[in-house]
Structure formats: C-alpha cells, structure tokens
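Minutes, project huddle
Topic: does the predicted pose make sense with KG4 bound?
PN asked that the exact inputs be recorded in the minutes so nobody has to dig through chat later. Recorded below.
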Amino acid sequence: MKILAIETSCDETGVAILECEGSFEGASFTILGNALYSQATLHAPYGGVYPNLAKREHQNNLAPLATEALKASGLWKSRTKDTPVNDSSFENIRDQTFKSNIEDFLASTEKPDIAFIAVTKGPGLEPALWTGINFAESLGRAWNIPVIGIDHMEGHIFSALLKQEVDSQQSAEQSEALLNPKRYTLNAIHFPILAFLISGGHTEFVVMKEPFVYEHIGATRDDAIGEAFDKVARLLDLPYPGGPQIAEVASRSRARGEKNEISFPRPMAQDDTCDFSFSGLKTAVLYKLRDMDKIDDKVKEQIAEAFEDAARDVVIIKTKRALEATEPKILAVGGGVSANTEIKRALTALIDEEFSDIQLLFPDATLTGDNAIMIGVAGYLRHLSGTHTASNLSALGNLKLGE
Ligand code: KG4
Ligand code: ZN
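Predicted holo structure (tokens), as shared on screen:
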C-alpha cells in the first residue's frame, strides 16, 4: 500500500511517499519519495520560529514538495486532459495564493496510486498545522481518498523504532549513499516501551504499554530542552536552531580536555519526580554572562560546554529514575535533541552500565528532526490498528499523546 505523508507542525515542510507492507510486527517501509524543506535560515533572524512566516512558507512550499515527492516515487502522471479540477476540493481555503497553489497542483497531475494521506494534526504551531491539514484535505477530496490525522510525537517515537535495512552486500556506510530508495523495518517490539521525547517543543517520558496506549510519566514544567539549547545559543550570539551550534561550540572546549571553571545548576535533579525544568538553567547562563566583563571565544565554548553538561546530567538522572519506575523492555529516544552527541553518549553509557537488559533505540540520523517519513510510518500503523481519526481534522496545538 502506498501512502502520502505530510508534516508542517513547525518550521520543516515535509512530504513523503511510502510503500508500506506487513502487519504491525515486521512492518516495512520503502521510502519512494521524500521532499523536505527546512525554513530554519528564514527564522534565524528572529531567533526562533515566527508562526506567520512558517505558515506562509508551508503554503508556498507544500505543492512543489508534493510534486517533487510524487515525481521521485514514479507516481506522478501529468494531466493531459483539460478537465477542470473540482472546486469543492479547496473551497474552504481562504488564502488566495495558497488556494491557487493547490488548484495548479491538482490540475497538473492525475490521481496517483495512493491509498490514503497521513498528516500531522498536532502538537505544534496551529497556523502551521492548519496549512498541512488544509492541503491534505484538498487532495483527499479531489482524489477521493481518506485523510488521517497523526500525533507528531507518535511520529518521533516510531522514528526511533525503525531500523534501516542494509543490503548484505554493502557496508553500512556504503549503503547510506547507495541504497535508493531507503527501506526501513520496525524493530521487534517488546512492551512496555519507555519513550523519551526531546525536541524544541517537548521534553517528556511516555510509556507505551501496548500499541497506541500511553501513560505520561514526566515532562518539563517550563521550557523544552531544545528550546533551552536555542535560547542559550541566542544568549551566546549563535544562530537558530541553537542545538547543533551549542554542541559544536561545546565540543571545542571538550576537546581541550581542561577542567571547566564554569558550572551551572542541575535543575530538579534532587526531587523524586520524572519532571524537568530548564528555564532556570537558561537564566543561570544569562546571569553568568552578565557577570563577566570579557566574553571571548574560549569563554563562550566553556559556557556552552557547562550548559550542555548540566542538561545532559539532568537527562541522565531523570532517565534513570524513569527506567527504575517503569521497567521497560525498550528505551526509545526521539525528537531533534536525540541528535545530540553528548546526550546520546551519556544515555548509551547509562544503559550499558546499569540497564543492560533494556534495548536503547535512537532514530537514524536523517530521522531525528521533523520529517514526513515518521508521520507516514505512524499513519500506516494507525491504519492497521484501526485507531486513527479520519476526516474533519482540526489543528490541535497542544495535543497530548493518547488523547
Ligand atoms: O524535533 P524537532 O526537529 O522539532 C520539534 O518538534 O521541536 O526538534 C528541534 C529541536 C531544536 O530546538 C534544535 O535546536 C534541537 O532540536 N536540536 C539539537 C540538536 N539538533 C537539533 N539540540 C541539541 N543538540 C543537537 N545536536
Ligand atoms: Zn518534532
């Protein structure tokens, strides 16, 4: 079964075509087309995502990206006849430019061989979510196929549970370049799974006890961890998105191997919940910078390292607590911050040293950030289980897993 997946919850516009096979156990996904456009450099001058700019960019880029993904997948069929597109497909789109983008797109291709569309319904920025939903529903109406709404965070969980199929003739490095299209299968799943979701909008522990049944174990009480990386980067005059920047700058200090004179608190490390707080850590960095009369590159690198150390340490302390409380079979880490080398290294060491019977899973490097592949994967698995919501979708900015 081929499906089309759309992601527009934040500042990445993603459209992917997946060929999905199998039942939940052993499901496999061949990525026939994957068009992803990051708006990060456009938002950089604002130091974060500017919602109306994100919305406008999604509106302009969805149709070209859908075209690109369909062409890559071989499902694009240029429309030869001059039959008009049914206006009712996009009659509820108010923005005229967006409307004509959709109209032109629908007029240029025949209905492709797609069984249904999976689109992110939340959580995220509502104006951004709405563009993906409106686009998906227009296509769904024009092509007469269902549209199902997917929780973005469920996508992040499943991105960690995928493993890339490597052709036995190729080494892992070779396969990265040679395997086209990429093929993923779902890892053998053993419940319960403890999902640790660390992104720009979320920092939470969620237990999946059986497919799509969630229990919330802990979460941040203020800023998300990625948000803290982004805000501290801004304080250090590093561009958005700040996570990779902080990691890079901190690594220079780390590489010197000297004792770091700068240190920051580990917020909420002592309390017995699995909750986090990152806003105090950001404030501690702010005060430190205020107190210093000279901030050269070396000091910046030390501050970045000290901040990353503090964030990493609370991650480890809280993950240990969550593992002890929930005794999972798998720890699945997802979201943009799961790309962080220092946090990955420390989590790997924690599992190796203290929880060696638990399987630790991270997403493939190309799937840590926002993308449509993970939305397609979650969409197919939801479709198999019959637990999806179809039609009349709404953008749910504060959607909570399982609700
Ligand atoms: O999952 P994601 O792409 O979008 C959201 O759903 O939020 O996560 C984006 C977040 C940003 O805050 C970004 O700075 C952070 O992930 N991030 C990182 C790294 N790469 C991305 N944070 C720390 N280290 C990284 N290497
Ligand atoms: Zn995300």
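Observations noted during the meeting:
- The chain has a mean pLDDT of 93.
- Residues 152, 156, 199, 335, 370 surround zinc ion (ligand 2) (CB under 6 Å).
No decisions taken; revisit at the next huddle.
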